Amino acid sequence: MTTRTENLNVALQTALGDKIVSVTAALGEVTVVVKAEDLLAACAILRDDPALHFEQLIDLCGVDYSEYGDGTRDGPRFALVYHLLSLKHNWRVRLRIFAPDDDFPVVASVIELWSVANWFEREAFDLFGIMFTGHPDLRRLLTDYGFVGHPFRKDFPLAGNVEMRYDPDQQRVIYQPVTIEPRVITPRIVREENYADSEGFRKG
Fold this sequence. Notes:
Blueprint: H1 4-16, E1 20-26, E2 29-34, H2 39-48, E3 56-64, E4 78-86, E5 91-98, E6 106-108, H3 117-128, E7 131-133, E8 162-167, E9 172-177
C-alpha cells in the first residue's frame, strides 16, 4: 500500500521531470529542489497540473547557508524556500531553489502565479538582500528605509552597524555609529549544594 508521501513523490517526478534536481522526504514532508532558471516553469506546473494543484503559497523565506555545517558546506550561499498547499489533494510540498550568485543573489518573482508572494519577497529582500526580478515594488518591509545591510545574513554584526536616537539639539531622529561594544555573553550559573530536599522540592 502506497503512502500519501509516495503518491506525491510520484506526481512530482511525473509532472516536473528533468526540472527536478532532487526530491527528499523526511518526517512526512516532501522537499523538491529545482534550479533557479526553472523556478517559474516549475511553479506554474506545481500550481496548474491537475495531479498536483498547489493553488496556495503559504510562505516564502530566505536562507543563508554560509555557516551551515560549521562553514564546511560546499554550494551556493542563499536559498529560497516556498511552502505550497493543495487544498484539492490535501497535501503540502516544500520547494527550494538556490540563487546562483552569492555576491548578488537574484531570482524571479512568483507574484504573477501567487499574488501573496508580494510581501514575502519584500521580506526576503529586506532581511537577506535577495533580489526578485519582476517584482513591482521591491523595497524594505520590516526595517527602516535608511537601514544599512540585511540583518538575517550570517555575517551581519549582532549589534548592527548604526543606531538611531533622538537629538534634542537638532530636534529630530538621527543615525550614528553603534556605541555598543561587541562581546560574548556567558550566562551566570549558580550551583548550590542541597538546593532541593530529598523529595525534589525546592527549599525556600
